Amino acid sequence: MRFPITNREHRNHGPLVGSARVLMSLICIFGLVATLCVAQDAQPPSSDSAQPPAAQAEARADDAATTEAVANEEQESTQPNEGDETGKTEEAPAEEQPPEEKPKRKKKVPPIPIERLRYKTLVTIAFDQTPLMTARFREDVLNRYRQLASKVLGQMWDPVVEENQWLFPPTEVGVARITNEAAKERFEPLKYNKVYILSIQQNGTRFLVSGREWDRTTRELDVVQTATTSDRRNVSLAAFQLSRKLFRAVIQIDASDDRGVLFRMHGGEYLASDDAAEQLPTGTLLKPMYRYMDKKKVLQRVQFHPWTYVEVNTRNRGRGVGQVHSGLANALGAKLGRRIQLRAIAIKQFQPETTLLLRPRRNATKPLVGYNVLVHKEKPKRKRLPSEDEEEPVEEEPPPVPLTLLSDRNGAVIVPINPAQKMLWLEVRSGQTLLAKMPFVPGISDRERVDVTDDSLRLAVEGAVSILQGELIDTVARRAVLMALANKYAKNSKWDDVAEQLTQLDELEELRSFESRLEAIRFPAIEEAKRKRDRTAESRIRRMCKQTGDVIKRHLDDTKVADLKAELAELKRLDDLDAAENN
């Protein structure tokens, strides 16, 4: 049981109780200080904590003053000025910031001109598996080929010469088996301008070198060519000469019209060490083509310009001027788009002759039989008509007689090459009608197809009109005879015979009958030409029928018979009057 402490006891124990209270307060203070110290050790050191207490107090005072000043400025900026009647606020001037630097665009590197581009060439040589084709022999052939290319061609070629490990069989047969699709799939990813596929095999005591060229510009393989040598030391020379024989130069046409072209030649600034290795001598013929690109400048397709050639007239290193020969109007004169490239490649006549297949444009399976093909050495000129001012016609030299060929039952004619005249001119005719006139270089390929206008409809009309004209001639002749006999009998007063002649004259076919028959020929033929959308045949049929109609009207005019009958009737009346007076 606890008794209350009296005042007396409190007075006796007072000092002891006060000391205990002081002790407990100190313990609490020390514990608080320890806790603060531990918290400061756990936090990262700051710049304020590193300063002494006096500096910290001054920093707090500066921050408070800065905050108060900013608040005052914002309050003053929101209050209107006393002298401003509109009550508009005056904005504080913004701090000037440095202009942002725009990212610099990368300068586009201009493409290298085509005349300064070297031909990146891959020469892959396959060796037949014979005892003479040793590793040392093969390596020697490859090294000598590299030396010849560097010595003769200089910087024009950038060749890579390697041994072929994929051609099977490694002979002429294997080279001939390669297709355009297989060559494109294999060589296009390699980024070479020219690829030469060569094979070396032994035939008895001689070495046979076979080769073909694949060109990146055309994406096509050329025909197989061969060379032979009996000395194994000249095998590399024969292979190099065959490559030079297969080489076809490429040009880029910059400007063109009907008169000529301006071009730049691939690698033309790099001259060959040997004059015989010149790329484009004067007089070289090239075949133009269009290369269609997509948005990413990737080649999509190649289209050759039909029946058009470019002949080199003058050349100065990588640039030159050429003449255009074409059977089409405005050849190479059309404006090209940005994605179309106009190039041309040199022509090599490797075949002794070329077979031309004559086909209509709308039916490639139908042969045109019995058509004439005239082969001229020069472009045939039109006959010049004399003008009205000329008193005497100008005598011109007769043109040389052309070679006339007739298409067989397959619609084919064979055109041989002419060593003295590379380019010839052809005229395809159906009777006297000219169907096509174009330049032609035989020997490029073994077969070429010539698409001309299908003249069968016009020929059918011409046959029917010819029959009608024959009947017209017979009618006109009989009519003239009957009219002459009627006049003769009238002069001799044989009126019975005159009446008989006039009866026969009335029985002849009249003008309207011939005109209706001509219309029966013309109308269905024109409708058929319209259905086929053959405007050429339609115009020719109209012209032919119009000329025939004019002939019919001129020779079967009814007024002639009417005048004759009136004249004979008057003669008979006079004769009757004379007979009556005599009686």
Features:
alpha+beta, Rossmann fold, Immunoglobulin-like, six-stranded mixed β-sheet, six-stranded antiparallel barrel, disordered N terminus
Count all strands and give the number: 20
Q: Which of globular, elongated, flat, extended, rod-shaped describes the shape?
A: elongated
| CATH topology description of the largest domain | Rossmann fold
So, CATH architecture of the largest domain? 3-Layer(aba) Sandwich
CATH class of the largest domain: Alpha Beta
Total individual domains: 4
The biggest beta sheet reads: 6 strands, mixed
How much strand content do the residues show?
15-25%
Helical region count? 11
Structural features, described:
It contains eleven helices and 20 strands. The protein has helices at residues 7-42, 53-78, 135-153, 172-177, 180-187, 235-246, 456-491, 495-507, 511-532, 535-555, 558-582; strands spanning 119-127, 157-163, 194-203, 206-215, 220-221, 225-229, 250-256, 261-265, 285-293, 299-304, 308-316, 319-326, 340-346, 353-360, 372-376, 403-406, 412-416, 424-430, 433-440, 447-452. The strands form four sheets. Strands 1, 2, 3, 4, 5 and 6 form a six-stranded mixed beta sheet that branches. Helix 7 (456-491) packs antiparallel against helix 8 and helix 9 packs antiparallel against helix 10. The longest helix has 36 residues, at 7-42. The relative contact order is 0.06.
